[in-house]
C-alpha cells in the first residue's frame, strides 16, 4: 500500500513543479554506414536512422502515458559525422546534414545531434570539411545540432581549432542574420565532451558506444526550487547543510523517474539502456528555472556575490543524489545556466546582475559553460575564439566538461534583445570586453599542452 | 483448525485490540492477519484467525460481544471460506488513479462504477486532503489492479470524461512511478 503522502508529493512534482523527462535520446552508431559514394552514404544513414527510430516517438508517448510523466522531447544522436564521413568535402558534408534533417523530420524528432568533430589534438581532413560545412549546414536545416570538441584534459587545447570555431560562429550567425544568428544556437564548442549526452545541442554518440543506446535527460529545476521553498518556510529553519540534503533527495527522486522511463523505453524498443543525465535544465517558463533557485536561497538574483558558492552547492548535491539513485548516470549531470532559455537568468542579464565574466566564473563549478549567450554582432571572430579559449581552459584544468554556445547577433549591440523562439528563448545581448578589438594571442595558434595531473592546487 | 474473520467497529478508544486479542488467546485462537484503521473517530478492524475445531463462530462472537458491547463496539464473526482471487488469477498491472477536486456526493460512486464496469479491482481507496483552505485539494486515491486484457484506452477515456464532468483533475499512473520516486 502506498501512503497518501507519497502519492500527493509525487502528483505535486508532476502537476505543479514541472517534473518531466526532458528528453529521451536514441543514440545511433553510423560508423558502418561509411562509403566513398556520397549518395550511398546518405542512403545508408537515412535507412539506419529511420529504421531504428521509427517507433521512438510513439513508444516514448506510450511509456510517458503509463507513468503520467511527459517525455517532452524525443531526439536522436549519431556518431560524430566527421568520422564516417571523413572522405567528403565541405559541400558534401552539407548534403549529409540535410539527410540527417530529413531523417529527423521523417521520424518526428525535434533535434538530431552528431554533426560533430573531435579535434582536441589535431584537425584531420574530414574534421576540417565538417567544421567548414557547419555554417551552411545549420543555416539550411532546422533540426540538426552540431558540436566540436576542441580541448580535453588529456590533450590540451587545440588553439587552431578554437580560432577556426570563432570564425565559423561568425559565419553561421551571418547566414542566419534574419533570425538573430539562430544557427549558432545549434552549435556547441566543447572541452571534455561526454560521449553520452542526451541534451542538445551537444548530443552525439561516442566512438566507444554500441550500435544503439537510449540515453535519458531528466530535468527538474522547479522541483528543487519548491523543495527548498518548503524547507525554508517550515518552522525549523534549515542551514545550508540541510538544504544541500534536501536538494540531494530531490535529485534522487528525479533521477529515479528518468531511469524508470528510460529503461522501459529501451526495453520496448529492444535497445540497450545507457545513462540518465541528471541536469537541472530550465525552459523559458515561470517555475521551470534554475535562476529562481538562487532567489529561493536568498540571493537577490543569480549573478550577485554568493552565486558561485550557491551553484557549487547545488551542482554537487544534484550529482550526489543522482549517483545514489542510479549506477548509470552520465552525460553532463549538473546545473545548466543557459541565459536565453531561462527567464530568470535572462532577466538577471538584462538588469546587469550577470555579466559574461560572472557566468564564466560560475562555469568552474557547474556542468556546462557559456550557454545560449547572445553577444554583440560586431564581436570579432578572434574575440569569440578568445572567450572559447578561456572557457576551455576552465574545463581542461578542472578535468570537467565545459562548453560555449555563443550567438553573435548580427546588427545588434549590447543591451538589445535577441529572439530565438521556442525552447531556445530570448535574451538581452550581453556586453563583451574588447568585442571588436584585435587579439594576437589567439592567432599564435598551436596546442596549449595538457595540464599536469599532479600538484593539484 | 478452521479459519474465521472477525470485524470490529465503533468509537475508537484505548484497549480495543487488547480486548479482542485477549479473548482470542483465551479461546486458543491464533491471529494470522490484522488490519485496522481509524476514520475520523471511528475504529474499524478486521482479524483473520485460526480457531480450534471445538469452537464455533457464533460462540466466539458471543464471547467477544460480552466484552466489546460495553465498549460501544459492534462485532461480527464469520467462517472464512477459501475463494478465488478477485481477478480470478488473471494477469494484471497495478495502477494508481487519483482525482482532485471539490468534494461532492457521488464522486466515489461515479468513478468506481467505471472501474467496476471494466473489471478493474480496487485494492485500496484513500481520501487525502492536501491541507490549506482550497476545497479543490481533496484527493481520492484508488489503487487498482487492471487486467492486462482490457481496452485501456477506452477505460482511461471513460475515466477522464467522467472526471471532467465532475470537475475533477484525474491522473492514471502505473504504481511503479510512486515506488521509484519514494522508495530506496
**For the largest interface in this structure, which chains are involved and how many residues does each contribute?**
A-B, 22 and 23 residues
Q: Please give the alpha-carbon distance between the first and last residues of chain A.
A: 52 Å
Assigned CATH superfamily of the largest domain in chain B: ACT domain
Order of helices and strands of chain A: HEHHEHEHEEHEEHHEHHHHEHEEEHE
Mean pLDDT of chain A: 94
The biggest sheet of chain B amounts to: 4 strands, antiparallel
List the quaternary state of the chains. heterodimer
Count of domain modules of chain B: 2
Q: Stretches of chain A where pLDDT falls below 50 for ≥5 residues?
A: none
What's the CATH topology name of chain A? Anaerobic Ribonucleotide-triphosphate Reductase Large Chain
**Which geometry of chain A do the CA atoms define?**
globular
As a percent range, the share of strand residues of chain A is: 15-25%
Helix/strand structural class of chain A: alpha/beta
Number of strands of chain B: 8
CATH class of chain A: Alpha Beta
**Gyration radius over CA of chain A:** 21 Å
The CATH class of the largest domain in chain B, by name, is Alpha Beta
Share of residues in helices of chain A: 40-55%
General shape of chain B = globular
| Percent helix of chain B | 25-40%
Task: Sum this structure up briefly.
The complex is a heterodimer of chains A (457) and B (184). Chain A is an alpha/beta fold.
Topology, element by element:
The complex is a heterodimer of chains A (457) and B (184).
Chain A: H1 4-15, E1 21-28, H2 38-53, H3 56-67, E2 71-78, H4 90-107, E3 111-118, H5 125-139, E4 144-152, E5 156-158, H6 159-175, E6 187-191, E7 212-218, H7 221-233, H8 240-269, E8 272-278, H9 291-296, H10 307-325, H11 343-350, H12 356-362, E9 369-376, H13 381-397, E10 402-409, E11 417-419, E12 426-428, H14 440-443, E13 447-448
Parallel strand pairs in A: 1-2, 2-3, 3-4, 4-6, 7-8, 9-10
Antiparallel strand pairs in A: 1-7, 4-5, 5-13, 6-10, 11-12
Chain B: E1 2-11, H1 16-26, E2 30-39, E3 42-51, H2 57-68, E4 74-79, E5 92-100, H3 107-117, E6 121-129, E7 138-147, H4 152-165, E8 169-174, H5 176-182
Antiparallel strand pairs in B: 1-3, 1-4, 2-3, 5-7, 5-8, 6-7
Amino acid at each position: 500500500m502506498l501512503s497518501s503522502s507519497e502519492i500527493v508529493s509525487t502528483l505535486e512534482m508532476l502537476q505543479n513543479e514541472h517534473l518531466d523527462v526532458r528528453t529521451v535520446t536514441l543514440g545511433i552508431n553510423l560508423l558502418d554506414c561509411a562509403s566513398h559514394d556520397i549518395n550511398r552514404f546518405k542512403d545508408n544513414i537515412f535507412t539506419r536512422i529511420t529504421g531504428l527510430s521509427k517507433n521512438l516517438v510513439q513508444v516514448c508517448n506510450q511509456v510517458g502515458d503509463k507513468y503520467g510523466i511527459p517525455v517532452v522531447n524525443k531526439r536522436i544522436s549519431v556518431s560524430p559525422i566527421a568520422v564516417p564521413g571523413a572522405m567528403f568535402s565541405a559541400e558534401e558534408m552539407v548534403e549529409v546534414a540535410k539527410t540527417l534533417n530529413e531523417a529527423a523530420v521523417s521520424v518526428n524528432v525535434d533535434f538530431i545531434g552528431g554533426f560533430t568533430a573531435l579535434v582536441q589534438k589535431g584537425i584531420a581532413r574530414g574534421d576540417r570539411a565538417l567544421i567548414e560545412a557547419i555554417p551552411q549546414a545549420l543555416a539550411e536545416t532546422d533540426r540538426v545540432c552540431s558540436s566540436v570538441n576542441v580541448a580535453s584534459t588529456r590533450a590540451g587545447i587545440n588553439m587552431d581549432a578554437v580560432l577556426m570555431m570563432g570564425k565559423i560562429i561568425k559565419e553561421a550567425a551571418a547566414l542566419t542574420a534574419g533570425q538573430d544568428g539562430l544557427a549558432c544556437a545549434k552549435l556547441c564548442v566543447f572541452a571534455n565532451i561526454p560521449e553520452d549526452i542526451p541534451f542538445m545541442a551537444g548530443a552525439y554518440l561516442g566512438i566507444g558506444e554500441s550500435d544503439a543506446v537510449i540515453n535519458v535527460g531528466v530535468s527538474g529545476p522547479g522541483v528543487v526550487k519548491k523543495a527548498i521553498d518548503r524547507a525554508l518556510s517550515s518552522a525549523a529553519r534549515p542551514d545550508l547543510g540541510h538544504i544541500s540534503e534536501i536538494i540531494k533527495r530531490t535529485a534522487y527522486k528525479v533521477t529515479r523517474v528518468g531511469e524508470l522511463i528510460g529503461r522501459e523505453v529501451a526495453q520496448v524498443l529492444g535497445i540497450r539502456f545507457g545513462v540518465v543525465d541528471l541536469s537541472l535544465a530550465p525552459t523559458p517558463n515561470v517555475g521551470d528555472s534554475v535562476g529562481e533557485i538562487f532567489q529561493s536561497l536568498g540571493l537577490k538574483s543569480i549573478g550577485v556575490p554568493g552565486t558561485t558558492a550557491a551553484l557549487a552547492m547545488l551542482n554537487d548535491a544534484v550529482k550526489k543524489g543522482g549517483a545514489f539513485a542510479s549506477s548509470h548516470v552520465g552525460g553532463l549531470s549538473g546545473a545548466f545556466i543557459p541565459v536565453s532559455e531561462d527567464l530568470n537568468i535572462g532577466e538577471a542579464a538584462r538588469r546587469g546582475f550577470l555579466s559574461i565574466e560572472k557566468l564564466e566564473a560560475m562555469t568552474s563549478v557547474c556542468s556546462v559553460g557559456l550557454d545560449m549567450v547572445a553577444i554583440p554582432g560586431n564581436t570579432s571572430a578572434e574575440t569569440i575564439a578568445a572567450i572559447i579559449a578561456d572557457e576551455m581552459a576552465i574545463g581542461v584544468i578542472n578535468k570537467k566538461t565545459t562548453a560555449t554556445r555563443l550567438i553573435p547577433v548580427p546588427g545588434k549591440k549590447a543591451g538589445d534583445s535577441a529572439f530565438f523562439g521556442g525552447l531556445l528563448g530570448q535574451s538581452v545581448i550581453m556586453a563583451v570586453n574588447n568585442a571588436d578589438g584585435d587579439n594576437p594571442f589567439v592567432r599564435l595558434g598551436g596546442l596549449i599542452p595538457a595540464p599536469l595531473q599532479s600538484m593539484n592546487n | 483448525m478452521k479459519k474465521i474473520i472477525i470485524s470490529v467497529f465503533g468509537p475508537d478508544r484505548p484497549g480495543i485490540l487488547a480486548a479482542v486479542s485477549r479473548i482470542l488467546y483465551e479461546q486458543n485462537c491464533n491471529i494470522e492477519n490484522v488490519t485496522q484503521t481509524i476514520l475520523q473517530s471511528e475504529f474499524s478492524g478486521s482479524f483473520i484467525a485460526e480457531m480450534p475445531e471445538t469452537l464455533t463462530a457464533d460462540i466466539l462472537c458471543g464471547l467477544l460481544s460480552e466484552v466489546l458491547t460495553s465498549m460501544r463496539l459492534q462485532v461480527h464473526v464469520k467462517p472464512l471460506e477459501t475463494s478465488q482471487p478477485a481477478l480470478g488469477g488473471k494477469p494484471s498491472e497495478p495502477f494508481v488513479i487519483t482525482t482532485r477536486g471539490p468534494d461532492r456526493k457521488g464522486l466515489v460512486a461515479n468513478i468506481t462504477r467505471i472501474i467496476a464496469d471494466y473489471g478493474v479491482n480496487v485494492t485500496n481507496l484513500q481520501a487525502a486532503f492536501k491541507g490549506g483552505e482550497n476545497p479543490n485539494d481533496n484527493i481520492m486515491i484508488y489503487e487498482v489492479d487492471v487486467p492486462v486484457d482490457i481496452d485501456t484506452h477506452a477505460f482511461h477515456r471513460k475515466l477522464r470524461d467522467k472526471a471532467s464532468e465532475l470537475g475533477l483533475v484525474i491522473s492514471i499512473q502505473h504504481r511503479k512511478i510512486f515506488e521509484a520516486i519514494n522508495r530506496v
